[in-house]
């Protein structure tokens, strides 16, 4: 409570803003407590009141005033083709803003599958060269926490922020750079339909009796067996449900390249 609130620059590249939409729905902790009491969210061009040059000046101010002591949160990614001209922020390519803000930050949080992996805007043949944050030239050596998902779970996002602030260090990351505490298990490992998988009881058509009985969605293309995320434990909307519980298989939205791996309905 007595710690000064750590400044955060939240940048937006090529993205759909649903990572922000997810974040503001966090129930534990409440997003408002994170933003108003834990962090000093000094720049977020999607929700801030300031606009134009006044807004852009804040980035410079924070970078210069808090060198090495601010967090850079990135939603979306920069397109590198044509010198970054496919995403312009404040009259300049987004990639320039990203590199400038990354240079002196304490850590980078790559929100969602856009910042972590590239996502749909990087789908083959990726004409704009949409590039995930860690592959942007010059950023590979930065401390980067990937929080993939399209979007990531709200409580996972706020928990990562809470961890950073509480322990003043990065959470333990797996080989792909994701916090182990949320990405070490497959959806399939904790799925409540797993007993049906083990018993060989599968949905074969969307409206068959097995679908009504809640049997396993593997044969309908569920990617739960190869997807590492916390949906089957933490769930969504404050623990209410997750895609499989609502009757649709997991499309693997937190996995690298999920958008290019054929139809979401192909079996594994
Ligand atoms: Fe939107 Fe998904 Fe990208 Fe988040 S990761 S900004 S939800 S497209
Ligand atoms: Fe696994 Fe998907 Fe079946 Fe759940 S519905 S048990 S995640 S294959
Ligand atoms: Fe995404 Fe699969 Fe969870 S589609 S939201 S990782 S259940």
Automatic annotation (TrEMBL):
Residue positions binding [3Fe-4S] cluster: 231, 250, 253
Positions that bind [4Fe-4S] cluster 1: 16, 19, 114, 150
One Gene Ontology cellular component: ferredoxin hydrogenase complex
EC number, UniProt record: 1.12.99.6
Subcellular location per the Swiss-Prot or TrEMBL entry: Cell membrane
GO BP terms in the entry: anaerobic respiration
Catalytic reactions of this protein: H2 + A = AH2
Stretches assigned to the Cytochrome-c3 hydrogenase C-terminal domain: 183-264
Residue ranges occupied by any NADH:ubiquinone oxidoreductase-like 20kDa subunit domain in the UniProt entry: 16-163
Main subcellular location of this protein, as a coarse class: membrane
Binding residues for [4Fe-4S] cluster 2: 188, 191, 216, 222
Cofactor needs: [3Fe-4S] cluster; [4Fe-4S] cluster
Quaternary structure annotation from Swiss-Prot or TrEMBL: Heterodimer of a large and a small subunit.
Protein's recorded name: hydrogenase (acceptor)
Organism of provenance: Methylomonas denitrificans
Covered range of the whole protein: 44 to 311 of 362
């Amino acid at each position: 409570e007595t710690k000064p609130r750590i400044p955060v620059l939240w940048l937006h590249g090529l993205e759909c803003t649903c990572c922000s939409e997810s974040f503001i729905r966090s129930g534990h902790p409440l997003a408002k407590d994170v933003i108003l009491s834990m962090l000093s969210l000094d720049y977020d061009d999607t929700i801030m009141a300031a606009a134009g040059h006044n807004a852009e000046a804040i980035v410079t101010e924070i970078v210069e005033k808090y060198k090495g002591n601010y967090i850079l949160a990135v939603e979306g990614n920069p397109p590198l083709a044509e010198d970054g001209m496919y995403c312009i922020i404040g009259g300049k390519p987004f990639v320039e803003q990203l590199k400038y803000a990354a240079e002196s930050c304490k850590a980078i949080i790559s929100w969602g599958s856009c910042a972590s992996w590239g996502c749909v805007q990087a789908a083959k043949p990726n004409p704009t060269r949409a590039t995930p944050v860690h592959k942007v030239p010059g950023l590979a050596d930065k401390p980067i926490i990937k929080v993939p998902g399209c979007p990531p779970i709200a409580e996972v996002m706020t928990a990562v922020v809470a961890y950073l602030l509480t322990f003043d260090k990065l959470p333990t990351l797996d080989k792909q750079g994701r916090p182990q505490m949320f990405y070490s298990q497959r959806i399939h490992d904790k799925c409540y339909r797993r007993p049906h998988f083990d018993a060989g009881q599968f949905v074969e058509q969307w409206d068959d009796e097995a679908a009504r009985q809640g049997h396993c969605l593997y044969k309908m293309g569920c990617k739960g067996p190869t997807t590492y995320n916390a949906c089957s434990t933490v769930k969504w909307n404050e623990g209410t449900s997750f895609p499989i519980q609502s009757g649709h298989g997991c499309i693997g939205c937190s996995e690298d390249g999920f958008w290019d791996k054929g139809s979401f309905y192909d079996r594994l």
